[in-house]
Amino acid sequence: MNVNSTDDQSAIGELQHVSDTIHIFRDRDQCIDFLTDSDNDKACMIISGALCQNVVPLTHDITQLQTIFILSREKDKLEQWAEDWPKIKGIFTDIVSICQAFKKIADRFEKNTVPISIVRTDENISIKSLDQLNCSFMYTQIIKEILLTIKFGEKHIQEFFRNSRDKRIDNEATLENVNKLDREYHNQSPIRWYTSEPLFYSVLNRALRNMEVNTIINMGFFIKDLHHQIQQLHTEQFGEHHTNNFFTVYRGQGMSNIDFDQLMNTKGGLISFNNILSTSKNREVSFLFAESILSDPNLVAILFVMMVDPSKSTTPFASVTDVGHFGDAEEEVIFSMHTVFRINDVTSTDENQRIFQVNLTLTTDDDKDLRLLTNHIREETFPDSTGWYRLGLVLLKLGQSHKAYQMYQVLLEQATIEGEKGPIYHQLGKAKFMQGEYEEAIKFYEKSFAIQQQSLPPNHPDLAMYYNNIGAVY
To answer: TPR repeats: which residues (predicted)?
Structure first.
């Protein structure tokens, strides 16, 4: 693309309304390097018809590249050639059509990448150490417990939007959208925002999927607001004055072969959806989505069938037909983060043997296995610590010093009182010590020590810890 041409600037602007993560390359090798260096992210490549026959053979087999769109006015000349390259999902003559196709791909990706944990319950969970447990299950349980103890205010909302602006300073279209959302945030409910706005659902999903602790902290206010609204609707819809009969919801999605094999070997076990879980009362809507996965050779098409008994579970879930973005079109029911189901069985669907139906039952409040697992994680993850400090201690305990460092940096930016910074500097020093960056560790330890000296007498026993840590570095 020529970023100086009026047509291409217009095309870039259209794409920025769909995604705020756009990278433009004029050099083929730079594009290839970018794709191969993207560890966690999946990419969609849009390329001109003039370059596609040169670039596609070199990039097609890169794992991170999921989809290729070709923009060309000579569609007829390229169609036969494109049939040899499965990742090419379309040849388009205008950018508007590409944006529409890209939005469908992006929505499918979000649905297929909700982080899940599959846990066997035929083993003695209580004797397992933290590093033997499923990390995603553990982290989301801790995050949920932490969020419910933190008091968020307007300053946290403004910090989120300020950070969002900083990340999009070179993206005029999405920067304008962030400013609009900042102005209108209090005009809509959290569920409405989550079901309609990529800045909330896409960023949050990615953060929980990749354990981006800095983003999770910045979005803590929103996760808690979302949980509370689901909880409020749950009380209104399934409270003691309502008839609480069994009902069934559905969810179509793709699953990796590794996760599917684990699922097949864990019948009778537990499965946790470690994000906000979107389902539908309409089986056909969910089945059609599962059916759309069949064209992807890297995924197994799954139709989850979830039995729910509201009278035996206080897990927050609610119909969002009246408050969600899609209205009654999808009959959407959403569950709060870290909802756990029991795996009953797995069979092929009647309509298509390649689509697997996974029958689940929402766990009850008296589920022995879940209670044992939850309590074990709580006991092993510093239950006496409060707020985000608890998550930081867990990350350090598990050797995740880089994530812990990122988290404490965010807490340092949020600290407004000098006394709050002392413990944070101390933990930053620990993280740097674990990384072998001893000079940086000493700097943080000394900053922490200086703050503590101002509030403690010279002979206070707590100061001994600071002397010991500084001495250990030397």
So the answer is: 422-455
Q: Are 193 and 325 in contact (CB under 8 A)?
A: no
Whole-number pLDDT of residue 319:
93
For the chain, what is the HEC assignment?
CCCCCHHHHHHHHHHHCCCCCCCCCCCHHHHHHHHHHCCCCCEEEEEEHHHHHHHHHHHCCCCCEEEEEEECCCHHHHHHHHCCCCCEEEEECCHHHHHHHHHHHHHHHHHHCCCEEEECCCCCHHHCCHHHCCHHHHHHHHHHHHHCCCCCCHHHHHHHHHHHHHHCCCCHHHHHHHHHHHHHHHHCCHHHHHCCCHHHHHHHHHHHHHCCHHHHHHCHHHHHHHHHHHHHHHHHHHCCCCCCCCEEEEEEEEEEHHHHHHHHCCCCCEEEECCCEEEECCHHHHHHHHHHHHHCCCEEEEEEEEEECHHHCCCCEEECCCCCCCCCCCCEEEECCCEEEEEEEEEECCCCCCEEEEEEEECCCCCHHHHHHHHHHHHHCCCCCCHHHHHHHHHHHCCCHHHHHHHHHHHHHHCCCHHHHHHHHHHHHHHHHHCCCHHHHHHHHHHHHHHHHHHCCCCCCCHHHHHHHHHHHC
pTM score, whole prediction? 0.82
Q: Assign a CATH topology to domain 382-473.
A: 1.25.40
The one-letter code for the residue type at 136 is S
Averaged confidence pLDDT in the chain: 86
Among candidates 43, 98, 42, 37, which has minimal Cα distance to 70? 98
Q: Which residue has the higher pLDDT, 473 or 204?
A: 204
Distance of CA 293 to the CA centre of its chain: 20
| Mean pLDDT value of segment 448-463 | 71
Give Cβ neighbours of residue 457 (< 8 Å, ≥ 6 apart).
none
Average pLDDT over residues 27-49: 85
pLDDT digits (tens, 9 = 90+) for 308-359: 999 888 889 999 988 766 557 678 999 999 999 999 999 999 899 999 999 9
Model confidence at 302: pLDDT above 90: yes
- The predicted pLDDT at position 2 comes to 47
Chosen CATH of 114-378 out of 3.40.190.10, 1.20.1260.10, 3.40.50.740, 3.90.176.10:
3.90.176.10
Strand pairing class (355-362; 299-308): parallel
